[in-house]
Each structure stands twice: as structure tokens, then as C-alpha cells.
């Protein structure tokens, strides 16, 4: 079931390019936004929803909701790389705050002049339980009755870019409940001060605008847990790297996992 869920996500992967991509990146996660006093809108998305794999998402309007598809992370004992270098192996188990070396690309053909790659040091730093009252800020708060929000913070440092670009997305993560099934992600449209994100620094202007190597972005993602349950782990399945063949991505069925 996990592989079927991942295949749907994998078919959606595509990279953002240019300044327009920077505009989208500026909306990633539950950002501080414009400071509008209007209640934020929201929607939930399971990890199987392709619309949730390319950002931590803030976008415009339409709401969709899919049911959860249970999944469990397989185990493998492999030591993570702690600084820029070899990718952290699939199946690595980490504690919160421990680093993993991850990557992303635009396109899947290295011969393409527009093909770019990036590497990162990624850390899941905090899993913070919220209160069901936090959800009252949303216009559609009634649909989340009985749910508890959890705020998952990911710190990502850009360690390399093969070519200057402002259109490279940081790695994204999923979260799991106590039974190992994927938790629903709450996608926020607008400002939500309980869960704010920051972006990579940029350098240059116009066509030369690029993310700044060495800068760090902090992403806050909101996941929902039913009453009596909780977020127990966070997983990385390499969703920002587009492979020529689905089977080439070994993280899909053997993700990197962070837990307390």
C-alpha cells in the first residue's frame, strides 16, 4: 500500500524554475504571510495526495481532502553523514536534531541545460503538540473537531547548487501516527502564527537571482492527530528528486526516519 501511495506522489514530481518559483517558495509552509486579520483558510492532505508533495504548501483556494493510506517505515541500520557529502542512506534512523544529507533536482535528464541539482543538510528539530483550540482560527474549524495539531519543524541548510537558481525546493517530510500510518497534513492558506516558516536567503538580481549557498530555511508543517493519538515520527522519502525510473528511488519504501 505504501508503494502505491508513493507512486502517486512520484508521478507528480516536477521542479520549479526562475523567479516565479521563488514566489511559490516564499509561500511554503505555514508562513507569517501578510499579517491580515482575516481568519486563514485550510485544507487537509494525506501523504498520498500529489498536490502536497511539491511544497509544504500555501497556495490559493480550492480545498480537497483524501483519506489516509496507512504505511510503516522499514528499518535499516546505517550511519548518517553529518555534513555535506554522501547522501544519508535509505532506512537511516535518527533522533530529533540529528542531520541527514539530502538532495533535490530540476528535471531528470543531466544532459538538459536547465537541469540543476542541490544538496542540503536536513534536520527535523521539533515535534510540538498544539491544542485543538488552535484550529479555531480557521474558517472551517468545525471539520477538525476532535483533532490535535502537531507542528513539525524542519531546518534545512543549502550546501551546494550545481547552477545558480531561485527555483529549488527544500526537502519535505511526512509524519506518522503511533501505528505508523501517515498523518494528515493541514495545508494553510494565509497567515497562521502558531506555525511560521522562513526561507533561504537569495543573492543576485533578475536572471541572476539565486538561492544563497550556506543559508538555512526553517519549515513548519502542521499535521493532525485524532483524539488519543499523537505524531510519533517524521519521515523523508526523497520527494524533491526526480528519478528516471520510480524503482531508482530507494527512499520510497525505506525512508529516513526521525523520532524522539
UniProtKB/TrEMBL annotation:
<feature type="compositionally biased region" description="Low complexity">
    <location>
        <begin position="36"/>
        <end position="59"/>
    </location>
</feature>
<feature type="signal peptide">
    <location>
        <begin position="1"/>
        <end position="28"/>
    </location>
</feature>
<feature type="compositionally biased region" description="Low complexity">
    <location>
        <begin position="69"/>
        <end position="92"/>
    </location>
</feature>
<feature type="compositionally biased region" description="Polar residues">
    <location>
        <begin position="99"/>
        <end position="108"/>
    </location>
</feature>
<keyword id="KW-0732">Signal</keyword>
<protein>
    <submittedName>
        <fullName>Cytoskeletal protein RodZ</fullName>
    </submittedName>
</protein>
<feature type="region of interest" description="Disordered">
    <location>
        <begin position="29"/>
        <end position="113"/>
    </location>
</feature>
Amino acid at each position: 500500500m505504501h508503494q502505491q501511495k508513493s507512486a502517486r506522489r512520484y508521478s507528480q514530481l516536477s521542479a520549479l524554475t526562475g523567479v516565479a518559483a521563488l514566489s511559490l517558495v516564499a509561500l511554503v509552509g505555514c508562513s507569517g504571510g501578510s499579517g491580515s486579520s482575516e481568519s486563514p483558510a485550510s485544507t487537509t492532505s494525506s501523504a498520498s495526495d500529489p498536490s502536497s508533495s511539491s511544497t509544504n504548501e500555501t497556495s490559493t483556494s480550492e480545498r480537497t481532502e483524501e483519506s489516509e493510506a496507512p504505511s510503516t517505515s522499514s528499518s535499516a541500520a546505517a550511519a548518517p553523514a553529518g555534513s555535506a557529502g554522501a547522501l544519508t542512506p535509505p532506512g537511516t534512523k535518527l533522533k530529533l536534531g540529528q542531520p541527514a544529507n539530502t538532495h533535490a533536482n530540476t528535471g531528470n535528464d543531466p544532459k538538459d541545460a536547465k537541469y540543476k541539482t542541490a544538496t542540503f543538510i536536513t534536520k527535523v528539530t521539533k515535534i510540538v503538540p498544539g491544542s485543538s483550540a488552535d484550529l479555531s482560527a480557521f474558517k472551517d474549524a468545525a471539520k477538525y473537531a476532535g483533532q490535535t495539531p502537531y507542528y513539525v519543524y524542519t531546518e534545512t541548510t543549502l550546501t551546494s547548487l550545481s547552477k545558480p537558481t531561485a527555483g529549488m525546493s527544500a526537502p519535505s517530510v511526512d509524519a506518522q501516527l503511533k501505528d505508523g500510518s501517515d498523518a494528515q497534513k493541514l495545508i494553510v492558506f494565509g497567515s497562521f502564527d502558531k506555525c511560521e516558516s522562513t526561507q533561504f536567503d537569495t543573492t543576485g538580481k533578475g536572471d541572476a537571482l539565486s538561492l544563497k549557498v550556506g543559508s538555512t530555511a526553517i519549515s513548519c508543517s502542521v499535521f493532525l492527530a485524532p483524539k488519543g493519538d499523537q505524531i510519533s515520527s517524521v519521515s523523508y522519502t526523497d520527494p524533491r528528486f526526480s528519478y528516471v525510473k520510480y524503482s531508482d528511488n530507494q527512499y520510497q519504501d525505506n525512508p529516513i526516519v526521525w523520532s524522539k
